[in-house]
């Protein structure tokens, strides 16, 4: 449906939905990652090479979690950024480092487990801690290079308190959409396929060879389940609705109205809440082998899920009520 003027998208949903989610993730994420890193350091010698990747995973989470209080203030103030243009860009950059750094290190962990189980003799003695440190530095560099162009896009309006865009202003939205699609391919799709391929092959090998080590099988299945949970709940919805929302903004700029624009916008805000949950869920990756800590952490995360679910249902009911009033 083309019109000379389009009905503006309502932006109130993010102000109600995101702050409680960010507060919950900040509290649970700091506790879970602090707990997880403590457990990791206690088992450092036992974990060996993989511990380097896991340590970087935890550091990426903490880097992002420390920016959440500023975003809570921003959305509680109805999208008024009062911390300056530079810090806005740093905050968004930290989010991207966390998101794509996490995906990168999860891919490294998957590749390591794949090589250790499927090709143990080929890699025995060839992979060292020094190699994992070098690979980790490479991941950080690649993620930084991918995220760096985002820093050059407009994030705020002038010197007055205003928007701190997670993408960019409408002036550059067409260019940003192209950049985002390429970023999604290299930063998400390719690592996702590698991770899926690695664990799919590992599961097949474990069952075909009739390996009797039940703990090894259960550990692989648990980690596969955690990765599927992270990708399906946190990463896939975010990338799908982020790009759809950018496309909707491009159409809106060209005065091409679509009835689904509001729905896509709301879905994008929900996916932003879901993607930040990865900072609270990532500790499961390095705690799944510790039975005592895992049981306590699961209880903690169940409570977090209940808080998040209640907030989501409350926001959804409010949106439905608002829609009915409009109709």
TrEMBL record:
PROSITE patterns: G_PROTEIN_RECEP_F1_2. It comes from the Eukaryota. The keyword Transmembrane applies. One of its GO terms (molecular function) is neuropeptide receptor activity. Its main location: membrane. It holds the Pfam family 7tm_1. The chain crosses the membrane at residues 17-37, 49-77, 97-115, 127-148, 185-207, 219-238. SUPFAM superfamilies: Family A G protein-coupled receptor-like. Residues 32-286 form the G-protein coupled receptors family 1 profile domain. It is found in: Membrane. GO terms for cellular component: membrane. Keywords: Membrane, Transmembrane, Transmembrane helix. InterPro entries: GPCR_Rhodpsn (IPR000276), GPCR_Rhodpsn_7TM (IPR017452), NPS_rcpt (IPR027294). PANTHER family: G-PROTEIN COUPLED RECEPTORS FAMILY 1 PROFILE DOMAIN-CONTAINING PROTEIN (PTHR24244:SF0), NEUROPEPTIDE S RECEPTOR (PTHR24244). This is P2Y purinoceptor 1-like. It comes from Mastacembelus armatus (zig-zag eel).
């Amino acid at each position: 449906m083309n019109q000379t003027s389009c009905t503006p998208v309502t932006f109130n949903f993010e102000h109600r939905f995101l702050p409680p989610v960010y507060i919950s993730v900040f509290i649970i994420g700091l506790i879970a990652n602090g707990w997880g890193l403590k457990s990791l350091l206690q088992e450092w010698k036992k974990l060996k090479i993989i511990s380097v990747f896991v340590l970087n995973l935890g550091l990426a989470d903490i880097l992002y979690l420390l920016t959440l209080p500023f975003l809570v203030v921003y959305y509680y103030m109805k999208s008024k950024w009062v911390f300056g243009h530079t810090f806005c860009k740093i905050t968004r950059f930290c989010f991207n480092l966390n998101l794509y750094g996490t995906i990168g290190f999860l891919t490294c962990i998957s590749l390591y487990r794949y090589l250790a189980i499927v090709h143990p003799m080929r890699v025995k003695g060839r992979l060292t801690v020094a190699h994992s440190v070098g690979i980790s530095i490479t991941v950080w560099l690649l993620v930084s290079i991918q995220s760096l162009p985002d820093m050059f896009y407009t994030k705020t309006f002038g010197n007055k308190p205003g928007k701190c865009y997670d993408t960019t202003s409408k002036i550059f939205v067409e260019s940003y959409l192209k950049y985002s699609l390429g970023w999604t391919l290299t930063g998400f799709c390719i690592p996702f396929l590698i991770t899926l391929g690695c664990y799919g092959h590992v599961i097949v090998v474990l069952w075909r060879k009739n390996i009797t080590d039940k703990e090894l099988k259960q550990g692989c299945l648990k980690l596969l389940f955690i990765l599927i949970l992270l990708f399906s709940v946190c990463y896939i919805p975010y990338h799908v609705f982020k790009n759809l929302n950018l496309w909707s903004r491009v159409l809106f700029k060209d005065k091409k109205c679509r009835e689904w624009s509001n729905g896509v916008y709301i879905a994008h805000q929900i996916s932003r809440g879901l993607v930040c949950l990865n900072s609270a869920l990532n500790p499961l990756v390095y705690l799944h082998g510790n039975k005592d800590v895992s049981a306590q952490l699961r209880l903690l995360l169940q409570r977090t899920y209940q808080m998040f679910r209640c907030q989501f249902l409350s926001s959804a009911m409010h949106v439905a009520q608002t829609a009915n009033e409009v109709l």
